[in-house]
Design a protein that fits this description.
This protein is 0% helix and 29% strand. By secondary structure, it is an all-beta fold. The protein has a 5-stranded parallel sheet, with no helix packed on it.
Length: 206
């Protein structure tokens, strides 16, 4: 590399710009199969957080373990292996394009497993999807013609106390029987107009 030195000082000019980054690797599904099966993918390797993943139209990829990717473009179908399969997805963003489907349960058949989607984008100026720059860097986006269905077990989300919850107690009595479970998180609302008095607790026994 060579350069020429300026004969006199120049004022520093600063500017800011945004551009769509090139991903390190783009991986495409080449057959129906499990996300965690290397044979499902064009590189014959399971995707990592460095990869932009594409599920083309006409292909079905199933989830039954942990799935990671920098981004996921769904033009085919992405769904749990079955309605009770536990899974997790860790990615900056998921974009569902026309004809694509992310299906976790349905209106008639609820998903009963433990499914977790974690979005990890932190750079607000990053353009994750170059063809949809306004979507930002942390997203689940559905374009025209795309389908996103999230149907879990139907449960009542609120109730009332059946007795006063005294200070420092570790149990409460509620007004009715509800299908809450150990491990669920609940919020005990404030008794006045100060929302900061609400308390979040995890159910340890029923």
């Amino acid at each position: 590399m060579s350069f020429t030195k300026y004969p006199k000082k120049k004022k520093l000019v600063t500017f800011k710009y945004y551009c769509a980054p090139n991903s390190l690797i783009s991986i495409q599904a080449v057959s129906d199969g499990s996300w965690n099966n290397a044979a499902t993918w064009s590189t014959n390797q399971i995707p990592t957080l460095a990869d932009d993943v594409i599920i083309p139209a006409g292909l079905l990829v199933t989830l039954a373990q942990g799935a990671t990717a920098r981004s996921i473009k769904v033009e085919g179908i992405l769904k749990p292996l079955n309605l009770s399969s536990n899974f997790s997805i860790t990615t900056k963003g998921i974009m569902i394009h026309s004809g694509g489907k992310l299906l976790i349960g349905s209106e008639t058949k609820a998903y009963t497993g433990n499914g977790i989607i974690t979005l990890t984008g932190t750079n607000a100026s990053e353009i994750l999807m170059s063809n949809s720059p306004i979507m930002g860097s942390k997203l689940i986006g559905v374009m025209s013609g795309g389908t996103l269905e999230l149907h879990g077990t139907s449960r009542k989300t609120w109730t009332q106390l059946n007795a006063t919850a005294e200070k420092n107690v570790t149990s409460i009595t509620i007004k009715e029987s509800i299908n809450w479970s150990v491990g669920d998180e609940i919020v005990i609302a404030s008794t006045d107009f100060d929302p900061h008095q609400a308390e979040k607790r995890t159910i340890t026994a029923i």
